[in-house]
Amino acid sequence: TARRLAHIPPTVFSEMSALAVRTGAVNLGQGFPDADGPASVIAAAAEALASGANQYAPGIGVPALRAAIARHQQRHYGLEVDPDTEVVVTTGCTEAIAGALLGLVDAGDEVVVLEPYYDSYVAMLDMCGARRRAVTLRAPAFRLDLDQLREAVTDRTRVILLNSPHNPTGTVLTRDELQVVADLAVEHDVLVITDEVYEHLVFTDAASAEGHVPIATLPGMWERTLTLSSVGKSYSLTGWKVGWATGPAPLVQAVLAAKQWLTFTSGAPLQPAVAHALDHEPDWPAELARDLQVRRDLLCAGLVEAGLTPRVPEGTYFATTDVSHLGWADGRELCLALPERAGVVAIPTQGFYDDAEAGLQLVRWAFCKDADVITEGVRRLAAAD
Ligand code: GLN
C-alpha cells in the first residue's frame, strides 16, 4: 500500500457491519435504513433501465437531474442555481467530497474540519496532502466551540469543511453559529465546503428552530461555498450513490476537473429517477424525518433504560452516548465486545477525533432501522451484564 494510505485503517463502518453479519448481532452501527425509498422512484429507475438509459451519462450529470437539483435548491432555500454551470452530479456525496478536496486543495494547504469528522474527510485530506486543523464538538452538548474555531481559521486556511446536520453527533448548526463561520470565511478569504446530506433529517426540537440552514444562503457566502448533498439519506437510497455539488461555476468546475478522472460518470439509469424523486416526491423526506423522530425517541428511551444518557440528536439518524456510564473506559473495546455480550453492533467514534481524549468513550447508535429492530437492540442492551 502506498504511504499516503498505509496509515489509514479500514473504515469502521465496514468493519462493524462485517462484525454484525458474522455474529448475527442487531446492527445499530452503519447508517443505512431498513426500508427503501419511494416506490415511484424505484419504478422510475426500472423504467429508465428498460427504456435504454444504459450508456454513459454526461460527466456533469443528465440535464433533467441538474435541473431538478437547481429547482430543489430554489424551492427549499431560495437559492438561484444555474443547472448548466453551477451543478455537478457525483457518485454519492463521497465523490463530491473527494472531487471538491482534490479540485481545490493543494499539498500543504490548511483545512479546518469539525471533529468528530466523517472518516472519508480525513482519508481524502491525507490523500491531498492537506494539513488539517480540527475544531471539536465536545460532549455532552456537542455544540461548535466558537473560540476554538476563531483560533483555527487564519490567513493560512484554504478551506473550512463543514457538516450540518452533523454525523455522528446529530448537531444542527444554528444560523448564529453559521454566521460566525461565514464572518471568518469572508475575513480570511476562505472557501467553505459543506456536506449537507442530512439536510432534510432535522427534528422539531432542534436548537435551530428554522431547521437546516445552508451556509450558502448567508450574505457573501454563495460565491465561496460548495454545497454537497445526495439522494441517499433524504430518500433512503444509500446504495444508489447519487450525489451532487452546487456552487459558483469556478468551484463546480474544480470538482468536475477532479471528478472526470475519478468515475468520469455513473448511474445513468438512476439519475432520471433521482430527478423524479426531487420533482415528484418533494414531501417524502419531511415524512421520513417525522417518522425518524419517533424512532429516535424509541432508541433514546431504550438507551436510558440500558443505563446510558444519549445526547438527543437534533438531526441525522444517529445518537451518541458516553459509555463510561456503563463502566467502559474505551468505546472501541465496548463495541468489539458488544456482539458477544449483548448481540448488538454500534460504532465507536474515537477514530473520528484528533483529540483522542475527547472521543475515547463515545459510541454512536443508528435509528434508521425498523422500530422492532431498535426495540430488540435496546432490549438486548438492557439485558446484558
Ligand atoms: N454514512 C453512513 C454512516 O455514517 C455510512 C458510512 C459508510 O459505510 N461509509 O454510517
Automatic annotation (TrEMBL):
InterPro entries, alphabetized: Aminotransferase_I/II_large, Kynurenine-oxoglutarate_AT, PyrdxlP-dep_Trfase, PyrdxlP-dep_Trfase_major, PyrdxlP-dep_Trfase_small
Annotated SUPFAM superfamilies: PLP-dependent transferases
Domain of life: Bacteria
Cofactor(s), names only, from the UniProt record: pyridoxal 5'-phosphate
Keyword field contains Transferase: yes
UniProt keyword terms in alphabetical order: Aminotransferase, Pyridoxal phosphate, Transferase
Keyword Transferase carried by entry: yes
Stated family: Belongs to the class-I pyridoxal-phosphate-dependent aminotransferase family.
Record protein name field: Putative succinyldiaminopimelate transaminase DapC
Source organism: Nocardioides oleivorans
Source organism phylogeny: Bacteria, Bacillati, Actinomycetota, Actinomycetes, Propionibacteriales
Record gene name: dapC
